[in-house]
Amino acid sequence: MTHRPRSSARRGDHSHGDVHLHGHGHAHGHDHPGHSHPTGVRGVLHGIFVPHSHDAADSIDDAMEAHSQGIRAVKVSLVLMLVTTVVQAVIVAFSGSVALLADTVHNLSDALTAVPLWIAFVLSRRVATRRYTYGFNRAEDLAGLFIVLMIALSAVVAAVEAIDRMVSPRPMENIGWVIAAGVVGFLGNEAVAVYRIRVGRRIGSAALVADGIHARTDGFTSLAVVAGGIGVLLGFPLADPIVGLLISAMIAVLLVGTVRSVGRRLMDGVEPELVDRAERALGEVIGIDSVDRVRMRWIGHRLHGDALVRTSATTLVDADRLASTAEETVRQRLPNLDEIAVRVVAVGS
Questions:
Q1: Which of 268, 325, 277, 196 is nearest to 34 (CA)?
Q2: Angle 272-283/316-331 helices, nearest 10 degrees?
Q3: In the chain, at which end, N or C, are there fewer CB atoms within 10 A of the end residue's CB?
Q4: CATH number for the segment(s) 22-32+271-346
């Protein structure tokens, strides 16, 4: 008896499992991704830079809608950063501060990091081909790697600038304008960070979350400028470079977690909580005697997986019904799941 696969509601994809009795299914997630929180110093910084959010509870199970939200987030944040840059440029024109000009150029370059992510989201909407059978969602992970490099570069540049100012102290000019530009930079970057991280978690995009963290680190760098300016006004000229070094150290510590997150995606890693959730869902299905294997991986912000389960059912009809039930159960538990192939085999085989 041959089982005809049902079409995916997203891209017309099909999932075919090799079976003894039956095997195959599609699942679409509705729950939010499992996640863990770092502890120690990195945990504290993670709480500051990437506060916990329950937005993922409303995770999007439609692939095209997720792509659209990702592109919208990139567009909106790009516009916000450009507006921030323009405002800072106006302040530079009034103040004539070379330091502010450098910071403005820095923010403009950071805004443009959204471009490769935008390209990645556009590519992810393309239909899979015979060469790229899983589609083009992996471009998003490559964009995430680029963003990680930009975060690292931001930390290095901030540290070098701070050390240079400690070795060769220079009087800070137009301190009021410097503080004003720092506040503008912080508010603009923070607004972009909140938006990117929220949407990134909702659609399951590690790259978009990383880009949000990038914006937040730049915002705190701008806040360091404000703190340094206030310190200078209070008669402590080394406040600016000292705060700059502290911010660089904070970015470096936070970078470790971001590298792990993006690198894990590139290595087909997945949160163990997601696998546990899938195993529990399958184990609750009446008729499944054991769950031998569950494999999952992120491709961009979409999940793909397969499972091997055993049953005492003796007919193809029973196995087919069992696989369909398993599919419906899993789809209630897993987020952003494009497809999962369930292979059902008889106990003892």
A1: 277
A2: 140
A3: C
A4: 3.30.70.1350
Q: Which residue type, as a one-letter code, is found at position 78?
A: L
Query: Which residues have CB under 8 Å from 15's CB, separation 6+?
Result: 5, 8, 24, 25, 26, 306, 339, 340, 341
Fold agreement (22-32+271-346, 40-266): no
Q: What is the pLDDT of residues 230-264, one digit of tens each?
A: 888 888 878 777 877 887 787 788 788 888 888 89
All structural domains of the chain with their residue ranges: 22-32+271-346, 40-266
Residue written as tokens 């935008």?
118
**CATH number of this structure's domain 40-266:** 1.20.1510.10
165-168, Cβ contacts within 8 angstroms, sequence gap of 24 or more: 165/240, 165/241, 165/244, 166/238, 166/241, 166/242, 166/245
Write out pLDDT tens, residues 139-161: 988 988 888 888 788 778 778 87
Spatial separation of the C-alpha atoms in residues 116 and 144, rounded to whole Å? 9
On the CB side of 154, CA atoms within 13 Å amount to 33
pLDDT digits (tens, 9 = 90+) for 33-60: 444 555 544 444 445 445 444 443 344 4
